[in-house]
Specification:
Layout (H helix, E strand, L loop, with lengths): L6 E2 L2 H22 L5 H27 L4 E2 L8
Antiparallel strand pairs: 1-2
Helix pairs in contact: 1-2
């Protein structure tokens, strides 16, 4: 399995992702209330980057549990 393969999340990974996504959406809502500017843009960019790394951590955790199934309908080139 390549580090670039998409995998189907199991129930544990899905629950983690959904809970974390809700927290990130709340943070996004709070940050969006700040006046536009460089600091706000950087905060939103950092939030996006953090969300990406959390997704990778969830994926890696699932693979570590030996419960990884490739997502056949996803093209790794996308």
């Amino acid at each position: 399995m390549s580090r670039f393969d998409y995998i189907k999340y199991d129930d544990i990974a899905l629950a983690a992702q959904q809970g974390i996504k809700a927290a990130f959406q709340h943070a996004e809502t709070m940050i969006s209330q700040i006046a536009d500017g460089r600091a706000k843009s950087l905060a939103l960019t950092a939030l996006e980057e953090s969300y990406m790394w959390v997704g990778k951590a969830i994926r890696d955790d699932q693979i570590g549990r030996a419960k990884a199934e490739l997502q056949e309908d996803r093209d790794p080139a996308e």
